[in-house]
Amino acid sequence: MSIFVLATIAIFSPTDKTTLHVYPLSFPFARMAGALSCTLLHSSHLLNFRARSCPSSAPPSKEPFISSRPEKFGFQLLSSRSGRQCFPSVAVAESKAASNVLVGDDGSISIDALRRFFDLSIGKWNGSFYQFDGNGRMLQRVSTKLSVSTYGEDDLISLIQTLYIKQPPSSTMVSGYDSEPDWLEYKIKETNMLTVDKYQQIGFFPTEKAFSLRYQTAGMLETVLRAGVLGEDDIGEESPRNLKLPSRYPSVVCENCLYSLKKDMRIRAFHIMDPKGVVDMLLIFLEQRGDAPSSISSYSLQDVPDRIIPFLGKWKGHSITKRSGVYGATIAEAETVAFLELDENGQVVQDITSTSTNGSTAKIHWSGTVSGNIIKFDGGFQLTLLPGGVYMGFPCDIAKSVSQSQSFHLELCWIESPEKRQRLVRTYDMDGLAVSSTYFLETRVY
């Protein structure tokens, strides 16, 4: 099984958009190219959320403000003016497609792609919200509903989303009286051409039904936890007892979304990295579309004693890498074969072969260890194994990657059935921007 990205990815110059180098995403971080400069967040990119409570609900907490000052993140970020760019020699297959497909200076926004993204999201979604710590321990589960619609035409079209969060029973409820559950209504800032392309830096796969988005705050996610766990007992205190909230000043908030291959369902996963670049928490929405009451419970994240078992064996598949933005030009494709093995001492070994469309082949060998729900690979990358055939991958320490002039990526994998799995990987470049996303569809061989 491929735990890491198996395709090649191009690193582009932020000024003239020419291809500098092409690297396989699955190489260890110690050999990955690119220097992360400026700040991971910028105040001009803030996506603010507005919340409105039902009469029976307490108001959600105030939305945090993210400063663009580097010292707020707890680690030193490199400046592009320093001239410190690190491109170590790596023996990889060249990707001709990467150098031939570029996004124009005018932004090359595709209205058709934007509409397809909106059409993929429109509807009423019912499901559950899960909160995990970095070790894969589930902290909370909250029932949610999401209503998604559009208004406007052509390049003025916008996506409107309203999130409804089921609140726990009232502590003052009369015994024996079965009342209707309360739902807190939360208005998410509308999405349009500007926000989805420039600020959220979308990675969109319309045919495969997958996308990645970037956020600057975790305010909406904090509200889900406050309303769904504390309910009307929440008075907006800074540190509510027995409740883990996202960092007020996250360095990275990344959403990866994969749609079911069988049902009208999807999984949306959020990586929340704290100001020091260490994983703060992992959050998942598992949702089903339709007006009827959700049957999502039958597809919930069922746990198993040993979460690594579904990922073992040999997998074959195809990967597509696209640049960020609504235009989403394809820059690389590859056929992949991966084998994952676990020995009796808890040692993990995987061998990966990736063959690009021009016939070049890269072979990679990985090794690591398993402890509980965590797989740590040599090179500083970690997988947290979650229930339901899901894992989320991330650097053990983004700050360390930054200090060593290394790019990084965040990954979501979903095994919906024993024979098929999907993966989505978000890659960040030397400027702290999400420059590309890679989608994988893989089939188990044995």
From TrEMBL:
Pfam families from the UniProt entry: BFA1_C, DUF3598_N
Occurrences of domain Biogenesis factor required for ATP synthase 1-like C-terminal (ranges): 311-445
Domain DUF3598 positions: 114-291
GO biological process: chloroplast fission
InterPro entries per the UniProt record, alphabetical: BFA1-like_C, BFA1-like_DUF3598, Calycin
Entries under PANTHER family matching the protein: CELL DIVISION TOPOLOGICAL SPECIFICITY FACTOR HOMOLOG, CHLOROPLASTIC, NMDA RECEPTOR SUBUNIT EPSILON-1, PUTATIVE (DUF3598)-RELATED
Protein name: DUF3598 domain-containing protein
The species this protein was found in: Dendrobium chrysotoxum (Orchid)
